[in-house]
Structures are given as structure tokens and as C-alpha cells.
Amino acid sequence: MITDFLVIGAGIAGASIASRLSEFGRVVLLEREERPGYHTTGRSAAFFTVNYGNQVIRSLTAASRQFFSNPPDGFTNHPLMSPRGILTIARADQFSEYEQNLAAARAVSDDIAEIGIDDAVQLFPTLRRDYVSLAHYEPGLYMDVDQIHGGYLRQMTAHGGTLVCDAEARSIEYVGGVWNVGTPAGVYEAPILINAAGAWADEIASLAGVDPVGLNPMRRTVIIFAGPAGVNLDKAPMVIDVEEKFYFKPEAGKILASPADETPSPPCDVQPDELDIAVTVERVELATNMVIGRIDHKWAGLRSFVADRTPVVGFDPGHEGFFWLVGQGGYGIMTSPAMAHAATALATKQSWPEDLAKNGVCPEKLSPLRPALLKRNEK
To answer: How many angstroms separate the Cα of 345 from the Cα of each of 23, 171, 353, 367?
Structure first.
């Protein structure tokens, strides 16, 4: 099958750029699993805040807010975000880290408020007063991942794009100005190949004869357990340790928690590690009065970074038509509108979007040719 754009990977990155690119030509979106979003996208904690990640990530997040607040017609029939506060807490011995975190937060948001211990406990009643010494609060937003991911796919198909599942790339070659991708579902051809394969993106590159960008997939563990009896936490905020050693939040009548681990892992259908689960339980029980008995559900996902923890977006310098859209780390969903806008502008050689420029996002900061990736490009 011949098309204008081939996108490998139907997670949030692939779905979002496929949605955008479908306005410029024929798109085929290839997914190795039986359904899209099986790996990282389907395992996200789903929060929107500009107070997260490095400066490039924060700029991309800020540039994405308008899309989530006012999505295009036909994208969804439901709000993509709903209010959910974020409470950052610190022990007395974390004073220095707290001051740094507060300054960084206030640099990107006017909505950060320092609060006392009484107010912190009122917001999340199970917090231990002998643990929390410092806290600040911001009015964050919860993202509906299913609606966001599904909206991108609906937009793509509405514009004539095609999603093909069970279509793992088995062979990739560039012949006569066209990329040929062999899959169990058939052979697909296009002059532009978008590598949005998440943790598998370096493997896709190697299959295509392209040097990898040095992705490092990291495991993130999550557990869900019953909240304390007699305490209504439905409207309580997400609670984050100031050093990001753990976080927890209400989730459909229960509590979702994570040790915010980043354990190196090969690309795979990653599973939670029992030690990380034990660490999660210990950290939550130290910070709160909650006693975690039975764990109702547990899972893990992969967050993939390059050396400078900034996404890689752009054509590979040594291979015509091979386009990178990788390295979103744990920020892929909340930055997806801006990332897709940037990637589409570069892939179609359009002028750089004004909304990205206004938020401080420039193509050089995302480029495969940027200094942080220079050693890779000099090989």
C-alpha cells in the first residue's frame, strides 16, 4: 500500500501526529499490538501541569493548554480536562529542595500558593503532621487519556487516515525515494516515515539502517489500593514529594500511588517489580496515616528519555525522509498537541507555528542535530 506518510507507533505521539498529518495527505498508522496505546499511553497517571519537566517540556506544556481547553470540532463530546489540585510536600530536611522547587514553579505559573500544615492536612486529611513541614499548592488538571488518545484517532480517520493494528515492522528499507515497511499485515510504502515507536524507536531506527538517538527506557511502577474507611478523598489533590520520590492521588474511589521510579529497562511489555511496590507502600505509609493492606491493582509503564531529557523531533540528518518523534519521557500526553504541531510543521516543511514560538519552543531545541545529541550524529 502506497501512502504519503507512514507513522510507526499508535501511542499518543503517533496518534497525535497522524491526526495532524492527515490534513496534509494520506496517512497510515502502524501499530504492533492488537490495539493502540497498549504500552506507555495506556498506563499514564494523566496530569496536566506546567510545573513539571525541564524548560523545553514546560514550554511545550504551556503551548498545549489551549488545545485541551478548546479541542477542535468533532474531537470529543466530553471535557478533556477536569480540575484536580496538586499538593507538593516536603519534610524539614528537604528545605533546600523545597525552595528550589517553589522558585521553579513560580517561574512558570502565577497560581502557586504556599500553604501551612493545617491547610495541607485539610486538603488531604490522611497526611501526617509529623511528616509534612512545608507545602505548596497549585490548581492542576486531570486529563482524560482515553478521550485525548481516541480523539486523535477519530480525527485521523475522519480525514481519511488508516490505523493498522497487529502490524509490527519486520523490515524497513529505503528504495527509490520511498520507505518500504514490511509487516504481518502487508507492505506499506511512503516517502516520509515517522518513527513514533516509543521505547522501541531506536530498534525501529536500527531496522531501517539509521543510527539510534540513544533512548533510555525507564520503568515506572504504579499501584492502586483502597482508601481509608470513613474518609472522603474524592476531591483531594494529587500529592507529590518535593524530590519526586513518590506521589499518590485519588483514582475512581481508590488511591493510585507510585515511587516515581526510573529503572532502566529494555523495550518490553514491562511488569511491576515487587521491590518497587514495597518501596511505594513504605513511602506512602511514612507520609500518611493510610495503612496499605491488599493491593487491588499494579502495573508498570516505560518512560523513554535521551541524554538531555528533551524530545527529539525532526528529520534524521543522514537519511532522507526518516523522521524522529521520540523521547517524550513521562510528558507525552500533556505535551502532545504542541509536539504534534511542531512535528507536522517540520515534516511538511511549513513555517514554524506562532503559538510555539510565543511559548519559547523553537525547532533547534528539539532537533536531532542539537548539541546534546552531537556525539551520536558524529558517529
So the answer is: 12, 28, 7, 13
- Say which residues have a Cβ less than 8 Å from residue 45's Cβ, sequence separation at least 6: 222, 247, 249, 256, 258
Tell me, rounded to whole angstroms, the distance of Cα 34 from its chain centroid. 21
More confidently predicted of 8 and 51: 8
| The overall pTM is greater than 0.85 | yes
Cβ proximity of 1 and 188 under 8 Å: yes
| Residue count of the chain | 379
Question: Which of these, 162, 164, 193, 161, lies nearest to 177 by C-alpha position?
Answer: 193
Residue type at 10?
Answer: A
Domain 86-139+216-305: which CATH number of 3.30.420.10, 3.40.50.2000, 3.30.300.30, 3.30.9.10: 3.30.9.10
pLDDT at residue 42 is higher than 50: no
Whether domain 5-71+145-214+308-377 has CATH 3.40.50.300:
no
Model confidence over 62-83: pLDDT tens digits? Answer: 999 999 999 999 999 999 999 9
Q: What is the largest CA-CA distance in the chain?
A: 68
